[in-house]
Amino acid sequence: MDVLTLTTYADAPFMTQQQAALEERGVSFSTLSVAGEVAADVDRSPTDYLRTIPRVITEARTGHDLIHAHYGLTGPLALAQFRTPVVLSLWGSDVHGPVAPISRLSAQFCDEVVVMSEEMRTALGVDCRVIPDGVDLERFQPEPQAQAKRRVGWDDSDAADVLFPYPPAREVKNHPRAERIVTVVDNLLERPVRLRTVHGVAHDAVADYMNAADALLLTSDSEGSPNSVKEALACNCPVVATDVGDVQERLAGVEPSHVASSDEELVRGLIDVIERGERSNGREAAREVSIDRTADRMLAVYEAATGQAVETRAESETPRVQDGPQLR
Question: What sequence ranges are listed for the domain Glycosyltransferase subfamily 4-like N-terminal (predicted)?
Fold first, then answer.
């Protein structure tokens, strides 16, 4: 099966990981990015999307079996052509934010729609499948904290390091709230507490920061299925997070970790995690959203949208047995 990926971020780690896992299952990909430049504090303009439509129509004529559109604003672009089935994956902000009406309208005309949480399914109000992005359990796995601290260049002082793995410019992540929470906790505890804002590092290095941190702090105003939470779980890094997306489900039974609905609860949760000074049991919970499991589920979506089964590499490499007598 050949899939055309339509995306706003061609190098999004969660998307490229999913593609790599699906390639192992016999799917091939071509990627088309929306025109224009984008950054943490700069969005593409409506003109960028409009001038991408002719490219989508032209590319769709080259024989792809499926178009997989990532993010709500790419839905209309994928639907501008009429021949090829469309799978639309929604990321979170495109269901809860100002883009939501476009996402809902596009979803009604797509062959399959994928969201990352039950909360998103309810908010969307359209028949869809819940498949959170998967985490690579080989890349993200527990390592000794002292070793990880040395690797990322954090000193071995008594200070507690609280990880905020997002660009401060991304307003939805609410960096000012994270600063506020850590400042309060630092004032309440004898042990120094530092907010470590990390972004722009290679994805391969993110696991080192998860293992070095005493806790991951998520203060987002909205989410789908935050990848940082799942990656922290895979590294047994305790998580303190706002109740957004599927966080409640992901952290069920994980200790120590806390889901909060107010600043006061975030403060109490972070204090508890730091005072306990333990790694979590999150890796077991992360197995539910391993990249292998989520790739299998996405493959089933592709097959449903196209009405065809994907021949795996193992199947294609197996010699066919011919009928009739065989020479020995």
Answer: 45-139
Torsions phi, psi of 68, nearest 5?
-110, 105
Beta bridge partners of 216: 163, 239
* Residue 197 token pair: 């804002």
Whether residue 52 is contained in a domain is answered as: yes
CA distances 300 to 18, 96, 107, 303, 315, Å, are: 13, 26, 18, 5, 17
Task: Check whether residue 174 and residue 307 sit in a common domain.
Answer: no
Encode pLDDT of 54-99 as tens digits. 999 999 999 999 999 999 999 999 999 989 999 999 988 889 888 9
Length in residues, the chain: 328
Chain segment 210-245, per-residue pLDDT in tens: 999 999 999 998 888 999 999 999 999 999 999 998
Judgement on whether residues 255 and 311 belong to the same structural domain of the protein:
no
**178 in the same domain as 80:** no
**Domain limits at 189?**
145-286
Sheet arrangement for strand 258-260? 193-197, 160-164, 215-218, 239-242, 258-260
Distance CA 115, CA 83 (A): 24
Model pLDDT, residue 318: 44
Regarding whether 234 and 299 lie in a shared domain, the answer is no
Q: How far is CA 194 from CA 33, 92, 198, 281, in A?
A: 38, 29, 12, 23
User: Contact 281/5 with Cβ under 8 angstroms?
Assistant: no
Q: Do 102 and 10 reside in the same domain of the chain? A: yes
Half-sphere exposure of 214 (CA within 13 A, CB side): 24
Same domain, 208 and 191: yes
What does the block give as tokens for 114?
């994928």
pTM score: 0.82
Distance from C-alpha of 27 to C-alpha of 251, rounded to nearest angstrom: 32
How many structural domains does the chain have? 2
Sequence-separated (6 or more) residues with CB below 8 Å from residue 165: 198, 199, 206, 209, 216, 228
Same structural domain, 125 and 149: no
Cis peptide bond upstream of 46, omega within 30: no
